[in-house]
Amino acid sequence: MRLVSINVGLPRLLAWKGATFKTGIFKTPANGRITLRQTNLDGDRQADLAVHGGVSKAVYAYSSEHYGHWRDQLSKEELPWGSFGENFTTEGLLETNVCMGDQYRVGSAVVSVTTPRLPCFKLAAKFQREDMIKRFLDSGYSGFYFSVVEEGEVGAGDEFQFLRGEVPSLTIAEFNHLYTSPAPDLESLKRAVEVKSLPESWRERFQARMEVASEKHRV
């Protein structure tokens, strides 16, 4: 498991469907070692801290293994690292093998997995495709956020050293399914709400979905 590329960028204006807005989704690979702080990397900023950035979403990670899929899907031979707005382009960290609460040392920093990414309209705007959000959700290739447990310096080529996991927990892929599925499994929902690091907004959503699923079982 390693860090393939570190990508940073400052908010810029983007036009989409007759509207113009600021977005920090445009990231480009950075050279050398970068300081990772509690809320972001040096040289990186987010435009809307209500949905991106901050303590629980300091770093967005996306797998390099997914890029082949998107080159085919989008008919793009050139798709540079950082194309999905990720700060960390990674290798070996997949939604199917990473769990919420997992902690890793990378460089001299320690990071902890928080939530999957839920795409907003800015992803569609960046690619100028109305179907991009649906494609992204359907793919299951969400990527995920890290919070920063210990600040430090990181650089391309650094290895991710697994430190500890959280028990109980679920994989990012399982959380994606529970969040987006029209009929999530009741037992999996029950497991999800027991995860200590689950954000309260997610817990409330899953509890509401549990009530619906329980009602269906009673009918």
Keywords:
two-stranded antiparallel ribbon, 26% strand, 219 residues, alpha+beta, eight-stranded mixed β-sheet
Account of the 3D structure:
With 219 residues, this protein is of the alpha+beta class. Helix content is 27%, strand content 26%. The chain contains six helices and twelve strands. The strands form three sheets. It has an eight-stranded mixed β-sheet. Strands 2-3 form a two-stranded antiparallel sheet. Strand 8 and strand 9 (109-116) form a beta hairpin. The radius of gyration is 17 Å and the shape is globular. 35% of the residues are buried. The model has no long low-confidence stretch (mean pLDDT 93).
Which helices and strands appear, and what pairs or packs with what?
Elements lengths: L1 E7 L3 E5 L2 E5 L4 E2 L4 E3 L22 E5 L3 H8 L13 E4 L11 E4 L2 E8 L4 H7 L4 H8 L4 E7 L1 E3 L5 E5 L7 H9 L5 H8 L6 H19 L1
Helix pairs in contact: 5-6
